[in-house]
Amino acid sequence: MAFKYPAARRDESKVDDYHGSKICDPYAWLEDPDCAETKAFVEEQNKLTMPYLEQCAVQARFHKRLTELYDYPKFSCPYKRGKRYFYFHNKGLQNQDVLYVQDSLDAPATVFFDPNKLSEDGTVALKMGRLSEECEYFAYGLSSSGSDWVTVQFMKADNLSPLPDLLERVKFSCLAWTHDAKGIFYNCYLRQEGKTDGTETTCNINQKLFYHVIGTKQSEDILVAEFPDHPKWHSSVTISDDGRYAVLSITEGCEHVNQLWYCDLQQLPNGITGLLPWVKLVDNFDAQYSYVTNEGTVFTFRSNLDAPRYRLINIDIQKPEREHWATLIQQHDKDVLGFVSCVNQHHLLVNYVHDVKDILQVYELSTGRLVRDLPLDVGTVVGVSCKKKHSDFFYKYYYHCDLSESNPEPKVFREVEVKGIKQEDYQTTQVFYPSKDGTKIPMFLVHAKGLKKDGTHPVFLYGYGGFESSIQPHYNVSYLLYVRHLGGILAVANIRGGGEYGLTWHKAGTLGNKQNCFEDFQCAAEYLIQEKYTTASRIAINGASNGGLLVAACVNQRPDLFGCAVAEVGVMDMLKFHKFTIGHAWTTDYGCSDDPEQFKWLIKYSPLHNLPQPPYSGPPYPAVLLLTAITTIVWCLCTP
């Protein structure tokens, strides 16, 4: 089918100089989403695209079946605050999950907070929510139409009555209550020129940390930390399990490193009244330190310091010199240490990732001794709920375990079934294939049981490969539709750049090594063809955000290898991404064209700059669908 695409004006005078290289940028005017010419172009593009998509003969059937498959009850893990349990629940097709509360696990549940009542079309979402330590108050952040800007409101947790307190200009923020429930730490930006509805493209810099006292106006909030000499720094506060310390993590960009400061709140005779006297425990960006718990002055952190697969370390803040730091749990020889939480006062709930599959174990806090393994099917722990002061915990697969029992065993707490779906009808396998340099890359394949490898099956190949984010097995309705009703194969390639095997795996797909990501993904397609699962014309590739970049770069480099490509909100201009919204934070993974050496890497694969120039005589490009938004603002591009 031939299309007449909208005309796009070329401004031949727009030429950028990158370290002596002249790069034409004739469509730079499209970077202004508020320009009338840009709006007209977008409208014309949609007038071309939408009628084509709407004429799909099976679209209505797809929509009906997707709706049926998605109409099943969804639950989060329960979590305990005060003496009550809370959990999120969606009956099936509600726009937003509803927060429920119950006095005990056996007691009837009632609605605590329903975001669906905030807007008729479901576009007002609960972006963040925090109950105070003993469940006196609930702070909740709302966003509209997918914006990252949040307005934080408050209510009493006992009678659900609203409070007049209101926090605005909140974005990429923590919410951390002091244990006395007098106030809450949060981050915000100063007022900026122009609009702040989530469609602006201005950079987000100079974030500040405030403390809000309940019952006061935001204008009276106390500035507790700012970094005027470092406008790109972001901060986040965690209150220690004993409530005594505020632990401050400072980051710059998306690299998994941070500075670590703390403040002893008990040493403030007049309470929080101004900039806090922060003690710099770590004042550089050499590694990541994530607070787990503390026993008095001995703090436990998950860290990648000298441990690319992570370990647990103890730091006594009374003896903060590095030579006094001690390892509590050593780095594993192969597996990556994932999340760690303290439970039952003296135990650690520890997650390891073994070849992209989760392991869950209980360790002793005082010694780092393994106590027991917890039962898991092959897959991913998608939710955990526990606190140090509580003996019980939940993990999703929906198990409940109470360590105060004489013989604690995880019990199935809740089971969810999807109508008409039988697990035994499907098969999930993990394969390892060689990339161009010989590195073995893991890939999950999901298909109908008994599938014959005859080269006739359509394949949906998904990848991400960035920001140390691991792509692990999880249930997805759209994937199920593809496998069940189209006879397709879902292939998820765990390419380098992610965190599947720790920091070394991640760095092998970043900066000057980014080409490894593209070759890993291309070799996944070649493997599927060689193993007679499919042919090139039957392979559809997909990725979002950083994965959208992956898809676009691979289409440019190997158009012959794919039959279809869907790139969602991809980073397409690798020379200028850092100049818009939070893009400057992504330079830790990509590099920055302001640097002469890094410019050389970026220009080689930047999707926009590697489109073939007419006349083109190479292999035909696959069918390509580009999905975008007015702006796409992702703090760390790490939510694939």
Automatic annotation (TrEMBL):
Domain Peptidase S9A N-terminal, chain residue ranges per copy: 6-397
User: EC number(s) for this protein?
Assistant: 3.4.21.-
Q: Which reaction does it catalyse?
A: Hydrolysis of Pro-|-Xaa >> Ala-|-Xaa in oligopeptides
Q: Name one GO biological process term.
A: proteolysis
InterPro entries xrefs: AB_hydrolase_fold, Pept_S9_AS, Pept_S9A_N, Peptidase_S9_cat, Peptidase_S9A, Prolyl_oligopep/macrocyclase
Q: Which UniProt keywords apply?
A: Acetylation, Cytoplasm, Hydrolase, Protease, Serine protease
Localization, UniProt: Cytoplasm
Lineage, top-rank taxon, reads Eukaryota
Q: Give the family this protein belongs to, as stated in its UniProt record.
A: Belongs to the peptidase S9A family.
Q: What is the protein's name according to its record?
A: Prolyl endopeptidase
Q: Which organism is it from?
A: Channa striata (Snakehead murrel)
